[in-house]
Write a structure and sequence with these properties.
InterPro entries: Acyl_CoA_acyltransferase, GNAT_dom. This is Protein N-acetyltransferase, RimJ/RimL family. With 200 residues, the protein is of the alpha+beta class. It is 33% helix and 32% strand. The chain has an eight-stranded mixed β-sheet, with helices on both faces. The model has no long low-confidence stretch (mean pLDDT 96).
Length: 200
């Protein structure tokens, strides 16, 4: 079983970034980013506009209450600004497995190293505190930037889910690329490799 309780308030942070539990009042902190034109291109759940973002955050909080997800708001300590959101999802205590997803950052925070710091903290906590054995990730097959970002933090491609998402153009279906990182990979060299990439 995982050593994890969704009712607890976990804060993950280093000198560059702070991840705190997502709350309803964070709508105001995230609305400007959520309204950026390209944020939701590769998401079947939209969070643009006050109504959509409020529903998006409330749904994540409701799923936390039933132990299904654990959402975070991301704060960039260097810029002194909220940068986006991410979450543990599909939490499976009996399998010691989780998925990491619903990750989005404002355009000003992409390519800054922020994502690597977030992934380092999330991987470290999941493997070394929660006792997870596997972290799964995924992305629209067309989302080459996100797939490359996941590979850059140590994740490995493991397959394709065919026709899982509605196509981004609204016509037909599209595939998802599945990736993962395992605890033994993290312990052997994943942690040290990712740490060496952090802009410390």
């Amino acid at each position: 079983m995982l050593n994890f309780d969704c009712k607890d308030n976990y804060i993950l942070e280093d000198d560059f970034v702070k991840l705190s539990p997502l709350k309803t009042e964070h709508v105001n902190d995230l609305i400007e980013i959520a309204n950026e034109a390209d944020i939701w291109k590769y998401s079947f759940v939209k969070g643009d506009g006050i109504e959509n973002l409020t529903q998006y955050i409330q749904s994540a909080i409701d799923n936390r209450k039933i132990g299904k997800e654990y959402p975070f708001i991301v704060f960039d300590k260097i810029a002194n600004q909220f940068a986006g959101s991410t979450r543990y999802c599909e939490i499976s205590p009996s399998l010691k497995a989780i998925r990491l997803g619903y990750t989005w950052y404002g355009k000003a925070f992409r390519g800054t190293g922020l994502n690597k710091h977030c992934k380092y903290l999330l991987f470290e906590f999941a493997f070394e505190k929660m006792g997870a054995e596997r972290i799964g990730l995924g992305a629209y097959i067309e989302n080459k930037i996100s797939i490359a970002a996941m590979e850059s933090v140590g994740c490995k491609k493991e397959g394709i889910m065919r026709g899982i998402f509605p196509a981004t153009n609204g016509i037909g279906r599209t595939d998802s690329v599945l990736l993962s990182i395992l605890k033994n990979e993290w312990d052997e060299n994943g942690k040290s490799r990712l740490k060496s990439k952090l802009n410390t």
